[in-house]
Amino acid sequence: MKPAFSQDGYALMRRLWSYALSVLCVAQAAHATVTVTTNYGVVATEWTTTTGNMKMDFDWVRNRFVIQYQYGTTPPQYATIDLATKALNHLASTTSSTHFETLLTVLPQNWNGHAQGTTFVSSGGTGEIFAISPTGTVTTFTSGLPSAHNWWATPTNYTTVRLDEFGVANYDLFYANEGSGEVSRVNSAGNIVWTTALSYTDSYGFSQQGLPEALIVLGSNSRWGTFQNKVLVGQNYPTSTMFTIDPATGSFQAVTSPIPGAPESFRLYHSRTGAPLALYVSLYGGSNSKIYQLSNLTGIPNLQPNDLFIAREANGGGEVYHVYWDNNTSSFVSQQIAAFSGPGYFLEDMVFAPQAVVPEPTSLLLFATGAVGVGVFRKRSGKRQARK
């Protein structure tokens, strides 16, 4: 008889094997180079190098990125990177007792007494959400959120915080805890509205705990097709199964990802200032981690404002896709715009922002604009198929 959740040796061992391989691969990144292949005229530029850059978002008012960096450090560390100068400055560290990945959100406007530019970030598996002010002051927004870590399901315990920017859930926050497979809706008072435990049936017929990581809340737009007015959740595991959640009730469906494999990051092609956009992609590679800029995006076929972009992480890089709903075929169209390949590297996140200056051989730079965002020891977990 199959258990409620398969705890068979095979399921556990493939996660641990993937984890071990990914840790070994990280050592290669310090001396490795990254090869980038692009389509549709997209231009890829190595924008900057840091120590252990991981998850990221963009502050549209201060024109800076907020990143989790020095990954592997306990407690987690956060920094800002100036768009114009690329200067990296430490912003804050939280009181979390783990080093796990924390997917963060920078407020695009004032919210519930918190100023625009405040970073909401989870605690990496201890059930808290922190608010980091633009100047680096850390306060606890709420606690008591799902924090269990089912080791048989995953060796890691990543957590995510995302904001409902479309009002489909009263502009509440959404929190995901990979270690227990749970997603919660959290209101402006810090109270849980609902919590749902994700699960799916794997290709062997076993019921498996969901491993939520990537998350975005969508409103109404025909380009999003069946994803409209849903919370999208990708898994920290190399599977084509992802989830859609009703933001009002927490009821979920396991669905097939529109890209090959598990989504690692969801972003919308949306400019908050009207400036031309570039897409910035975070590649974790230990002390030689990189952020790439993808520019010249307007040649992507049928690209429209607010279209969905989805990234996939792989052990040794990852890919970025432009995804939209085709009403004629009643299905999603997925176009790969870039692929990254390099031993020991893992695509961790991406975010739209103004197009930064790119140095010219003969002079200084070429200033462009751009915008968007709506939306050490590295693991990388069992999820990442060897990958993470």
Q: What does this molecule look like?
A:
This protein is mainly beta. The protein has a single domain, classed as 6 Propeller (Neuraminidase), CATH 2.120.10. Helices cover 5% and strands 41% of the residues. It contains 1 helix and 30 strands. The protein has one helix spanning 9-29, and strands at residues 35-38, 43-50, 56-59, 64-69, 77-82, 88-93, 102-103, 105-106, 119-122, 129-132, 138-142, 159-163, 173-177, 182-186, 192-197, 199-201, 207-209, 212-217, 231-235, 241-245, 252-256, 263-268, 277-284, 289-295, 308-314, 317-326, 331-341, 346-354, 358-359, 365-366. The protein has a 5-stranded antiparallel beta sheet, with no helix packed on it. A 5-stranded mixed beta sheet has the order 7-12-13-14-15, with no helix packed on it. The radius of gyration is 19 Å and the shape is globular. The relative contact order is 0.19.
Which short descriptors sum up this protein?
Neuraminidase; 388 residues; mainly beta; single chain
Secondary structure topology:
Blueprint: H1 9-29, E1 35-38, E2 43-50, E3 56-59, E4 64-69, E5 77-82, E6 88-93, E7 102-103, E8 105-106, E9 119-122, E10 129-132, E11 138-142, E12 159-163, E13 173-177, E14 182-186, E15 192-197, E16 199-201, E17 207-209, E18 212-217, E19 231-235, E20 241-245, E21 252-256, E22 263-268, E23 277-284, E24 289-295, E25 308-314, E26 317-326, E27 331-341, E28 346-354, E29 358-359, E30 365-366
Parallel strand pairs: 7-12
Antiparallel strand pairs: 1-27, 2-24, 3-4, 4-5, 5-6, 8-9, 9-10, 10-11, 12-13, 13-14, 14-15, 16-17, 18-19, 19-20, 20-21, 22-25, 23-24, 23-28, 25-26, 26-27, 29-30
